Amino acid sequence: MDNKMVYAEIVSDTVMRKMLVLKSALKNGNKCRVYDGQFTYFVALVDESFLEKINNGERFGKGDVLVVDLRQIQTFEGDVLKSESRIIKVCKRYESFQAFLFNCVEGEL
C-alpha cells in the first residue's frame, strides 16, 4: 500500500439542531463546545452573518441555546475515519438564563 495520505469525504448532510453552548472560543478558529442533549462536541461556527453580529458586540457565550443548520461531515484521512461539525447558519439564539436574569434586573434600575 502507498504511504500517500488519502482524503475522501464520504458522508455530508445538513440538519437543523438545538444545542446548548458550553464554551465559546471564537478567537481561536471560531470553535464552540456544545451539547445537543445527547453528546458534547466541538463545532466550527462558519455563519458569517452571526459572527459579524458577535464582532459588533452582541452577547454570545456559555449557556446560550442555538437553533442551527448543522453540517456534519465524515471523512477518511488515510485509514482513519474523522467527523467534523460546522454551524452553517444560526437560525435562532436564546440568551442564557443568567444573562436573561441580569438584563431583567438591569432594566428595572
Written account of the structure:
This protein has 109 residues and is α+β, with helices and mostly antiparallel strands. The chain contains 2 helices and 5 strands, in the order βββαββα. It has helices at residues 48-55, 97-108; strands spanning 7-25, 31-35, 40-45, 65-77, 80-94. A 5-stranded mixed barrel has the order 1-2-3-5-4. Strand 1 and strand 2 (31-35) form a beta hairpin. The longest helix is centred in the C-terminal third of the chain and has 12 residues, at 97-108.
Beta-strand content bin: over 45%
Cα separation of the termini: 71 Å
Number of helices: 2
How many E strands? 5
| Biggest β-sheet strands, sense, barrel | 5 strands, mixed, barrel
Reconstruct the topology from this structure.
Elements lengths: L6 E19 L5 E5 L4 E6 L2 H8 L9 E13 L2 E15 L2 H12 L1
Parallel strand pairs: 3-5
Antiparallel strand pairs: 1-2, 1-4, 2-3, 4-5
Short summary:
The protein contains two helices and five strands. The chain is α+β, with helices and mostly antiparallel strands and 109 residues long. The protein starts with 6 loop residues before the first strand and ends with a helix.
List keywords for this structure.
alpha+beta, 2 helices, globular, five-stranded mixed beta barrel, 18% helix, 109 residues
